[in-house]
Amino acid sequence: MLNNPLGFDNKMKLALIFLITLLQGASLALAQKKSLSIGKPVANDSIWFKASNDGVEVELFEALESLPSSISTSLSATNKFDVVARGEQLAKIFEEQELGQTGAIARESAAQINQLTGAAFAILPTITDFGYGIGSINTRLTGRTRETEDARISCNLRMVDTTTGKITERSLIVSERNTMVSQQTNIGSGLIQTLINKLANEIVSELVDEAFPARIVGKIGKRVTINRGEGLGVEVGQIWRVFALGKEMIDPDTGESLGQVEAEVGRMSITQVQSKVAYGNLIEDFGVEELFIARFDEGSSPPPAGESPVTQKPSIKESLDF
Are 151 and 176 in contact (CB under 8 A)? Predict the structure, then answer.
């Protein structure tokens, strides 16, 4: 009988190795997603008073009721979160802990949110201002006056990592204008719903940035790619800063994580945005490498056309003690 170099036992071993590899890949994909609980939006009496005076109280109420669903819809496109609960009791817990006055909450309270919702992250949108009005604009070409309606909403977004108790706050302001008022019969409803959908996209963008900071996923020469695409606040012409991360800092007294050491190692200008990624050119490079963190620089302006990167300097990787 001829000996089979790949006997039955070896075939079984290879099959098991292949199956384990698949399972590990699936587990990694699942582990990369974070569970999320979305709190019901909170708005105080002054918000409803303004909306009532403007005649759009019902429209605002219906739009805010749909905000958690709009957030869920926007989140599904990111493939980074699983919405496990709509936290009806989150507002009460947040209020009891006076979140927003501190940068963290007690571990017991964080655990309570985790136990209540089963989520690693919890968010609570609080409406802090609202405005609506009908006006008019003059069209120079035709000399005609067109009616417009404008709406603006301000939101305080509180995000809690229930595994650490860390809380992060963001102030969001979105506005919307409709110039086709005369052609509508239900004034306010369409514009306000569009406004709330826009707010949902802003919330998702902030949440993704907090839980999954953008990273450099490709680098060829001065050309770099980040894992941020359409709908997540990336636009052509923006300047993004690149950071290297060092060791995790641990509070010696409490044992809690204080984040990681960071050092800025470059800047990039966004040149192209696709559905899942964005491309840019480095305008500063002090040792940029793949997997480094990238953050939008709100205070910067685009570089002049044709500007080339600065002279590259040695990487500071060693100084961060990787």
Answer: yes
pLDDT classification of 47: cutoffs 50, 70, 90: very high
Closest alpha carbon to 277 in 304, 302, 243, 240: 240
Check whether residue 200 and residue 235 sit in a common domain. no
Residue the block writes with tokens 């000399």: 143
**How many other β-carbons are positioned within 10 Å of the β-carbon of residue 276?**
14
Q: Could you tell me the pTM of the whole model?
A: 0.69
Both 81 and 192 in one domain: the answer is yes
Range of the domain at 136: 34-211
User: 250 with 256: CB under 8 angstroms?
Assistant: yes
116: exposed, middle or buried (C-beta count within 10 Å: 0-12, 13-18, 19+)? middle
Q: How many domains does the chain have?
A: 2
pLDDT in tens, 90-124: 666 666 655 444 455 566 666 677 777 778 888 88
Q: How many CB atoms sit inside 10 A of residue 183's CB?
A: 8
Task: Give the pair of three-digit tokens for residue 292.
Answer: 């480094």
For the beta carbon of residue 214, count every other beta carbon within 10 angstroms.
22
Cβ-proximal residues to 105 (8 Å cutoff; 6+ apart), any chain: 97, 99, 160, 165, 167
